Amino acid sequence: MKKFSPSLKMKNAVLAGALSLVLGNAQATLFDRGGGLIFDDVLNVTWLQNANLAATQGFGIASKGAVESSFQFGIAPNGSMNFNTAYNWISAMNNAVYLGYSDWRLPTTMQPDSTCSFQGSRSSGYNCTGSEMGSLYYTGLGNQNAVIDPLTNNLISYEHETKTGPFKNLQSNLYWSSTEYKPDSSNYVLSFFNGNQGDYQGPYGNLYAMALRGGDSTFISAVPEPETYAMMLAGLGLMGFMARRRKNITS
């Protein structure tokens, strides 16, 4: 009986590694494009990798002391700011054509959103994947959904630790949305501490801001479609079959 050849062992090792790589990539929703950009294939948007850029880059926006009121215009040392400051910060970023782009914006919040745990005058609470930040929190970053009692709609439990994925400086805190909740002149926010979506009473509050822009069609075409994965898996399966057949013949 002939021994199993080392070359065939090597082929099988390569086969297993390639299969693992394909399966891992097929489940991904966030792709590090390099250069400080993260592509989100669920939302078809590109996020700024530095989720608290304002702490180090104000683009000429005034700074303010850590203890100054949230009514005060300017960026605090930790990068937090009121909504009006966040809006102006994004505008300044676009004027600076940051990373070569001038279409940066704040995330939006879909209303109504049937995925949210609370439905009333607004869709809010937990598990809101219709909003861009909610989709990032639960789908892109893979944080666990909160457990809600279906009879009382009360919160049973939620995850405390925020996954940061490929992002840098993602704060376990509230982030501004550009979508306004008009009844009380406030803006929607999302907590990256527990995934809770709500609205902040008025545009004041030292919250954080993260930027995103539209998806890149060039990059999208470079990301394999599900059909491509299927073809790759079929090819790998054929390679495995041929390797086993060769083993049987040489045994």
Explain what you see.
This protein is of the alpha+beta class and 251 residues long. It folds into two domains: 6-28 and 219-250; 45-214, no CATH class. 29% of the residues lie in helices and 17% in strands. It has helices at residues 6-26, 83-95, 132-140, 217-222, 226-250, and strands spanning 30-34, 37-40, 45-48, 118-119, 123-124, 147-148, 155-157, 174-181, 186-191, 197-200, 212-214. Strands 1-2-3-11 form a four-stranded antiparallel sheet, with no helix packed on it. Strands 8-9-10 form a three-stranded antiparallel sheet, with helices on one face. The chain has a two-stranded antiparallel sheet with strand order 4-5. A hairpin with a 4-residue loop joins strand 8 (174-181) and strand 9 (186-191). The radius of gyration is 23 Å and the shape is globular. The termini are close together.
List keywords for this structure.
251 residues; alpha+beta; 2 domains; four-stranded antiparallel sheet; 5 helices; globular
